[in-house]
Amino acid sequence: MKKTKRAILLISLLLIISCSSLSPFRGKGYSTFASAFGERGELVVLIDTEKFDITSYVNSPELRERSEYLTLVREPNGSVIGALEGAYPADVIRYATGKNRNVFGQYSVMQPDSGIFLFTDASLDDAYERSFKNRKLVTTESELKERFRNALSIYGYDVRGLIGDELNDIVFNKIDININKNDTSVNNDTGFVLSGTVTIDDEGAFKRFLTYFKTWYIGDVRRSGGNVDLNRINESIKVGEDHQNTLIFTNLPCYSFDLGRLTLSDCTRPTWPTTKVCPSFGAGLLSR
């Protein structure tokens, strides 16, 4: 009887392995796909799909349910390269890559290896060349492992054009932001909190951004029906003591952020991907 049970278990495991396989970049609790990205001017977004809803990115429930990691890279020219990783059975792969499918919006998509979908709004050949064929190490595995401890991590150096026309000229010299689920949701916030730093070396640009962000955030709390707690806001948004041009966020509650699209709820939101650039911090992260 025991031998029969073991045989059944072994056969079941073999069937699972044969029906789905994992990404070559998959680690234990993290992905190394983004190790080929992170050069100056690029903005990288890492998402643990078990902690963060990716409905805004992936239209297929079957694909979302079997995914583990989503990586998005906004290149200096505004184009986007993305990778979705997980364990995908053959029928799900056929569905995602079949003709007339809209799983990844209007993005071109391919499956270059088991357990991963590569997509972009630019040249698919160029995206494959950089991320697979001729990979170069830009970000270390240990850094990616640490970043994937968060629900969502955003980082980049010397990134331009993240905000609408009024602040489009600002260069963000360093962005290091993490978003995680909060234990409690109060005052109509989303239940997520934002922590990290934003550095703008140009003093004038930094002051413009600081004034803009605080004004927008207070307005966002009010529009969402939350209570404006200035003491908490001042505790959560501070200017660095050692580096006066660094803004430090500490457990800042998110209100009307549509975190999936990295835009805001008061903006017009057509089906993602969108070229809409909302006049707010983070709104244009993935916009052209």
* Number of helical elements: 7
- C-alpha Rg, in Å? 20 Å
Mean pLDDT: 78
Total E-strand runs? 14
Helix/strand order, N-terminal first: HEEHEEEHEEHHEEEHHEEEE
Give a quick account of the main beta sheet: strands, pairing sense, barrel closure.
10 strands, antiparallel
Distance linking N and C termini: 62 Å
Net shape? globular
Task: For this entry, give a set of tags.
288 residues; alpha+beta; 2 domains; two-stranded antiparallel sheet; 14 strands; 26% helix; 27% strand; disordered C terminus
Descriptive account of the structure:
The chain has 288 residues and is α+β, with helices and mostly antiparallel strands. The protein folds into two domains: 21-152, no CATH class; 161-288. It is 26% helix and 27% strand. A ten-stranded antiparallel beta sheet has the order 6-7-4-3-2-8-9-10-12-11, sandwiched between helices. Strands 1-5 form a two-stranded antiparallel ribbon. A hairpin with a 4-residue loop joins strand 13 (257-258) and strand 14 (263-264). The chain is globular and about 55 Å long.
Topology, element by element:
Layout: H1 2-19, E1 20-21, E2 43-48, H2 61-65, E3 67-74, E4 80-86, E5 88-89, H3 90-97, E6 108-113, E7 116-120, H4 124-133, H5 141-147, E8 152-160, E9 171-181, E10 192-199, H6 203-223, H7 230-236, E11 237-239, E12 246-253, E13 257-258, E14 263-264
Antiparallel strand pairs: 1-5, 2-3, 2-8, 3-4, 4-7, 6-7, 8-9, 9-10, 10-12, 11-12, 13-14
